[in-house]
Amino acid sequence: MEELYREYGKIVHHFLLSVCHDAQLAEELTQETFLQAFLSLERFDGSCKISVWLCQIAKHLFYQHLAKSGREVPTEQAQMPEEKAVDNVEQNAIAKLELMDMLKEMQKLAPQMREVIYLRVMGQLSFKEIGEVMGRSENWARVTFYRGKEQLLTKRKEWELYEGDQL
After folding, report:
1. Which of 22, 90, 103, 129 has the fewest other C-beta atoms within 10 Å?
2. What's the whole-model pTM score?
């Protein structure tokens, strides 16, 4: 559980902080989230990422806090826009972490492969333009990009399998 907290504690804390805008409350709810996760670990079915599961627990704890403090708890119908906003914050936090992981993995690729991916994704260059920049053919750029993308997708699948095995 300690390893889980080290890996996902910041995500949950940032998520809660963005929802409640109170650092002390976010810290308390983060700790409570991991306690509840520990107590209900056997109910985690692996149908979603661990970070999503933890943020869902955090969201429910925040709603419980609102109810206990006498503030209005969002209902399904009345709170649909905020619900989407909470989910959006959660998704943005997860996406940012996944992007960081992907960029770290890209650093492990061969330099030319990494450069092709950067030019294609970040520079939005066509394969023909990439071939010209790199002094190679359009087909070489296309194949290099495809191979790099496949390596990254394979690594991502390994992460997902590893996350599921940890629980």
Report:
1. 103
2. 0.45
Question: Rounded distance, CA 52 to CA 2, Å?
Answer: 18
Asked whether residue 78 carries a pLDDT value surpassing 80, the answer given is no
- Distance from the Cα of residue 164 to its chain's centroid: 15
Query: How many CA atoms are closer than 13 Å to the CA of 20, on its beta-carbon side?
Result: 27
Separation of first and last alpha carbons in the chain: 10
Token output for 133: 């920049």
Place of tokens 């869902």: 56
Distance of CA 117 to the CA centre of its chain: 21
Q: What is the Cα 62 distance to its own chain's centre? A: 20
- Higher-pLDDT residue of 66 and 44 is 66
Neighbours of 88 (CB within 10 A): 11
Residue whose C-alpha is closest to residue 56's, from 24, 8, 119, 100: 8
Residue 93: its pLDDT value, please? Answer: 73
